Amino acid sequence: MPLSAALDAQHEFFRYTSGRWLWDEESRLRERYRVFDVHELQVIAAKSVCAEKCVDMVKRAEGGFNKVFRLVMDNGSAVIARISMPNTGSPRWTTASEVAIMDFNADFWDGVSSLVERDGWTSHETYDDAVELFSQLRQEGLRQLEGEERAKFDRETRWADKAARQD
């Protein structure tokens, strides 16, 4: 690949390319433009999975705060890397927040592990208690949400109420 083509490909990694804004688009795009050392990311990712080098890198997703890349290595391994955008605030606090959420989720699943596995499996003996727990969690979620977010949550969690009524 010629150097100019490689630089153009890298430039796409830096730019926000997942959507448009109806107003003040230039400002929104500047907020989400993040230059980073692509080669160094590839080197670090390769080392993390005992590979010699990265052979492919694709931007998989980007939201308002992060860009997510999939890096494929010469040994067949794949690594997911996340680059935060400048508008996310301090990396220290955003990482701390993500760790806190992961800890909360781990604590939740540890707390219900006697009733249900993380994949949703439950024994015949604990099924009724698990259904009751998730039905209560559903009701709490519905109380706290509004609008489209509430409607989506309602659609996605109806199974809990249906399962509770079947008993």
Q: How many H/I helical runs?
A: 6
Adjacency order of strands in the biggest sheet: 1-2-3
Q: Rg to the nearest angstrom?
A: 22 Å
Order of helices and strands: HHHEEEHHH
The poorly predicted ranges are none
Total number of distinct structural domains: 2
Shape: extended
**What is the residue-mean pLDDT, rounded to a whole number?**
85
Largest sheet: 3 strands, antiparallel
Q: What oligomeric state best describes the polypeptide chains here?
A: single chain
Distance, first to last CA: 63 Å
State the share of residues found in helices, binned by percent.
40-55%
Structural class: alpha+beta
Q: How much of the polypeptide forms β-strand, as a percent range? A: 5-15%
Number of strands: 3
